[in-house]
Specification:
Layout: E1 6-9, E2 18-24, H1 28-35, E3 46-52, E4 58-67, E5 78-84, H2 87-98, E6 103-104, H3 109-116, H4 122-133, H5 137-147, H6 150-174, H7 183-202, H8 204-212, E7 214-219, H9 226-234, E8 252-258, E9 261-267, H10 277-291, E10 295-301, H11 308-320, E11 324-330, H12 343-348, E12 353-355, H13 364-378, H14 388-409, H15 414-432, H16 438-445
Helix pairs in contact: 4-5, 5-8, 6-7, 6-15, 7-14, 14-15
Length: about 450
């Protein structure tokens, strides 16, 4: 497939002044000769002319730029055509190119070729996609920091250190009687690698939530106002709101921006003891959502006392320990609202307690509290890992280095230490994309837009 010449629309589809159609591969020069009828041209220079179909008919009046390999985004010959921006004319240009024997590109295939041709590593490729899909300025900042390459440089330095240790061990194994390195030198090098990995991993969780969003779960007993709160946060009616307990039986997911922080919001089924099979399935999904969340909004009904159902949820949240929980006392608009019913709870959690009226949209203090809890975490200054693949892969590499250190300290032979050093290197190669499987690349690039 990498020998194919590919084409895709690289601009949003719709009515506009200009659209961009991108072509990459070995047959770009043939396209220029046949479809653009140009024999002489210079890379990186813009030309004006007409696009012709195979019958010699004019399709559109265009400008175009040729990028010669390897000095292009993909590392291959590339052609970018700037045509009129209407939907029909853009597709006419695309279909004209396809009829010259060019295949339509798969999602992310241009960037995939850039990785395979050594134009960028996998970390930078993922950063490219994150920049395009960023929902907030904070997530854009974190993605752009990663795009600037310092993180790739740090990973490359770790790779070179592991290669140096690998070479050192191999020399000792090949010439055991002639060369012997000092033990503390090897140990210090391995310890230094672990320290550098820890420095990168330290900010990984914050980098992930900055880019992928703060997974936020709304929980509470039935009819506490969870769905009303979801609608208030979204500024639209997304969830069904009734006075009947148990109306929400499945999770509802939406994305929103709170003061620049990207939130992935999940409304859940109310937690209570029930014999209703369908409702119990919803409650199980609620519990799973809680376990996978970064933030929990525990909604309480301020018109009723603190009930056994509330206590059941509160105890479950306390069992988790490591979750950020905001206690949301709802229905302050009601004449039956009594803050005094929840005074002991407020005294236990003074910094995590807010009062709102979801029905009236009076939720600013809740939004401010969310901002207060997460701004420092997601406001990433230094380049860091921004997805679970990157974090898990680097953690796995670190484990192999720790195994090597353990083997070294126990006096195991060089070939045992070498095994773990090589495994650590394999994971670094997987992180950067130097060692990959088609399955891994297909999974990563399937999330890209078609023209990138």
């Amino acid at each position: 497939m990498l020998n194919d010449t590919i084409v895709a629309i690289s601009s949003p589809i719709g009515t506009g002044a200009i659209a961009v159609v991108r072509i990459s591969g070995n047959h770009v020069k043939n396209i220029i000769g046949q479809a653009l009828k140009r024999k002489r041209y210079t890379p990186k220079k813009m030309y004006y002319g007409w696009l012709y179909n195979k019958e010699g008919e004019k399709v559109d009046e265009i400008t175009w730029v040729y990028h010669s390999q390897p000095h292009s985004y993909t590392g291959e010959d590339m052609l970018e055509i700037f045509c009129h921006g209407g939907k029909l004319i853009t597709y006419a240009v695309l279909n004209t190119i396809i009829k010259y024997g060019v295949r339509q590109a798969l999602p992310g295939e241009f960037t995939k070729r850039a990785v395979l041709n050594g134009k960028m590593d996998l970390i930078k490729a993922e950063a490219v996609n994150n920049v395009i899909t960023s929902e907030t300025e904070i997530s854009l900042k974190a993605s752009f920091n990663q795009l600037k390459n310092p993180l790739s440089e740090k990973i490359n330095e770790i790779k070179n250190s592991l290669l140096s240790i690998s070479a050192q061990i191999e020399v000792e194994m090949d010439y055991p009687d002639d060369i012997e390195f000092e033990d503390h030198n090897m140990k210090n090098k391995l310890d230094d690698i672990v320290n550098r990995m820890d420095q990168i991993l330290k900010g990984a969780d914050n980098g992930i939530i900055a880019v992928e969003g703060v997974r936020t779960v709304i929980v509470g007993k039935p009819n506490s106002g969870k769905s009303t709160l979801l609608n208030a946060l979204l500024r639209k009616d997304r969830a069904i709101v009734t006075d009947i307990p148990g109306t929400t039986r499945d999770t509802i997911e939406e994305n929103l921006n709170i003061n620049g922080i990207y939130i992935k919001l999940i409304d859940t089924a109310g937690i209570r003891n029930t014999e209703d099979t369908l409702e119990r399935v919803g409650i199980e999904r609620t519990i799973n959502s809680i376990k996978n969340s970064h933030l929990i909004l525990f909604v309480l009904d301020g018109t009723t006392p603190f009930t056994q159902e509330d206590e059941l949820i509160y105890n479950k949240l306390n069992e988790l320990g490591n979750k950020t929980v905001i206690i949301v006392l709802n229905k302050s608009d009601s004449p039956n609202f009594k803050e005094s019913n929840y005074l002991p709870l407020k005294q236990k959690n003074p910094n995590d307690f807010v009062i709102i009226s979801a029905k009236n949209g009076d939720i600013k203090n809740l939004e401010d509290k969310i901002y207060e809890k997460f701004f420092e975490k997601v406001n990433i200054e230094e380049p860091t890992l921004t997805n679970q693949r990157q974090k898990i892969t680097l953690e796995s590499s670190k484990e192999f280095v720790l195994n090597a250190i353990n083997s070294f300290e126990k006096g195991f032979s060089n070939d045992v230490i070498m095994y773990d050093v090589r495994k650590a290197l394999e994971k670094i190669y997987e992180l950067s994309g130097e060692n990959y499987t088609e399955e891994l690349l297909d999974k990563i690039f399937s999330t890209f837009c078609v023209g990138k």
